[in-house]
């Protein structure tokens, strides 16, 4: 008689949790996916849809210190800090600044590169198996510039090229030939040729979830209220009752800090609140377009054009400041010849706010818990949750099943904070 498959709970059904569930079920485990809100909600639903494998440089960049004061006083700026939250976020910022030190930055860049290098290939293989290839468009992306000196952008291109990123520095004419709807104010661009985007992040999550179910993954909509390890089992207390599993993967995004605190782990996780504004008309763009100066991104979606980006530090549960979303329209008008019309009344169907789960070193936590034998983590992916979904799931599958992971996972271990 064959051995009974081990049971695993994956807590959190965002893009990371779904990928972990698929990878584990494919390894022969019996997987239950648990989420209090449903499948593919939160940042998995509202992100910019950009598979941003070019983003190998940590957010903790010394150059940011010079730019930050100007950004903070600009009402259309890419970063906002709610005044009443400043002292609460200060410890996180101090850790963030520490990561700007050259040795830390070099180490974190190398670790990000390792994850990003395999990210698209992992999705290609997964989406082929799931018959969902339509949700990955490999058409590259552009970062456009209006008034940055040509030499400065050339240096930026070389920095990426030296890091192994495929990028072309395009003139104004070359840029407009690729995207004719860009405004004449655009003077140049960086063309990242090997990245991709999805026309609907939410449908991508739902399609992968359907594939997970076809493999045998079970889903429960419930809130986990407590987690306790008993010898070789892990007990979960949920709003739908108590359950016991052989192993548990925590993939709870921004909620991970509270979950791990209860288990005795310190996690300097901060909510980088991002916004999007949906324009329900044809985009007249063929790939994601980011602005080098304005720090926002436009992505053509199945339902129109999504304007996204910006960072707000105000705490996870603060009321949304919808001006952070509607201001993106002014930026879009500045960089496009023809901008889809803004509805006379912008309602909740066009607006979104979500909390990116960000750690000071821009690296996720992936791997085995250090204080528990049957507990694993896949969380804290900051701006790269969509991008790193498939590679994270693949690594968790390898780690949990006792295989040698294809990457050195030491840089992502929870031990760096504990």
UniProtKB/TrEMBL annotation:
The keyword Oxidoreductase applies. GO terms for molecular function: oxidoreductase activity. The keyword Aminoacyl-tRNA synthetase does not apply. Keywords: Oxidoreductase. Pfam families: DAO. GO terms for cellular component: cytoplasm. Residues 8-398 form the FAD dependent oxidoreductase domain. This is D-amino-acid dehydrogenase. It comes from Thalassotalea agarivorans.
């Amino acid at each position: 008689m064959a051995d009974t498959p081990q049971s695993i709970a994956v807590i959190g059904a965002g893009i990371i949790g779904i990928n972990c569930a698929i990878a584990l079920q494919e390894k022969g485990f019996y997987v239950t996916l648990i989420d209090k809100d449903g499948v593919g909600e939160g940042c998995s639903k509202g992100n910019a849809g950009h598979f941003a494998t070019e983003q190998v440089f940590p957010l903790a960049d010394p150059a940011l210190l010079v730019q930050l004061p100007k950004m903070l006083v600009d009402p259309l700026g890419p970063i906002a800090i709610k005044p009443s939250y400043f002292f609460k976020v200060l410890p996180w910022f101090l850790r963030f600044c520490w990561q700007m030190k050259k040795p830390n930055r070099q180490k974190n860049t190398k670790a990000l590169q390792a994850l990003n290098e395999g990210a698209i290939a992992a999705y290609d293989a997964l989406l082929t198996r799931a018959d969902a290839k339509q949700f990955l468009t490999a058409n590259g992306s552009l970062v456009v510039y209006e008034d940055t000196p040509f030499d400065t952008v050339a240096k930026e291109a070389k920095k990426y090229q030296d890091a192994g990123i495929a990028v072309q520095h395009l003139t104004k004419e070359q840029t407009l030939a690729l995207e004719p709807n860009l405004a004449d104010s655009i003077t140049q661009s960086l063309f990242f040729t090997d990245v991709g985007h999805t026309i609907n992040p939410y449908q991508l999550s739902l399609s992968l979830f359907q594939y997970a179910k076809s493999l045998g993954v079970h889903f429960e909509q419930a809130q986990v209220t407590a987690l306790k390890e008993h010898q070789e089992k892990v007990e979960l207390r949920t709003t739908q009752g108590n359950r016991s599993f052989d192993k548990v993967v925590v993939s709870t995004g921004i909620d991970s800090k509270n979950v791990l605190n209860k288990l005795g782990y310190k996690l300097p996780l901060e909510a980088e609140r991002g916004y999007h504004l949906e324009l329900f008309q044809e985009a007249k763009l063929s790939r994601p377009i980011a602005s080098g100066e304005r720090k926002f991104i436009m992505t053509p979606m199945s339902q129109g054009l999504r304007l996204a980006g910006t960072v707000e530090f105000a705490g996870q549960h603060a009321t949304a400041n919808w001006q952070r979303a509607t201001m993106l329209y002014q930026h879009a008008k500045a960089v496009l010849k023809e901008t889809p019309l803004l509805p006379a009344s912008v309602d909740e169907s066009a607006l979104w706010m979500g909390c990116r789960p960000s750690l000071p070193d821009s690296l996720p936590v992936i791997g085995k818990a250090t204080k528990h034998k049957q507990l694993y983590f896949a969380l804290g992916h900051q701006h790269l949750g969509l991008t790193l979904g498939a590679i994270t799931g693949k690594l968790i599958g390898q780690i949990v099943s006792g295989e040698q992971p294809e990457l050195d996972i030491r840089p992502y271990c929870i031990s760096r904070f504990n």
